[in-house]
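Aim 2 progress update. The chain analyzed this quarter is reproduced below.
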Amino acid sequence: MDLFQTLPQLRQFPFLRHKTVALIGVSTIISDEAAYYFEIAKPKYWRHPQPGEVDRCTRIGVGGIGGSIEKDEEVLVCLHREVEEELGVRVRPEMSPVTYLIRDWQIIDQLSFAPGKKQPVPLMVNLTPPRLGGPHIPDRLAIVTFRATLRGAPAPGDLFGLLRVEKTALAAFFARDAWSLDDL
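Predicted structure tokens:
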């Protein structure tokens, strides 16, 4: 799917103006009244200590709940399908007052979009370079992340692990650059 079909406003940015960007995934940062919920990455994505490193802890990854967009699937349909598969519940997407544009893992801009009738404004648009080359490979890949509220109690299904972080502990959780499996 073409990112600019979903978010045509992004075409205004000079570094994207003449680029092709494939929207390959969607994720969501989910919360309820008390906590936020994150997916724990599969072990193949964990950072294991190298020989001789002072800190010998395995570092795990956490992220939003989501996955890959299937052919001809709308963004919000994908979001609801992935959450249903991974948590067994429905969510209510929320409007974000600002959208963070992220390129190569750095925030490069904060955008304000007028809310659309068909879909809420995303919290983040993450742009990464493709890993393979070739004549029909896009210039960038994108994942959009929305905020959402749980509509029921999560029951992890198609998910490696689920992390629940109390809202009162969120700042302390993200104050650290990395978490070891033991600490988590």
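The longest helix spans residues 75-87. Residues 95 and 138 are 28 Å apart (CA to CA). These observations will guide the mutagenesis experiments scheduled for the next reporting period.
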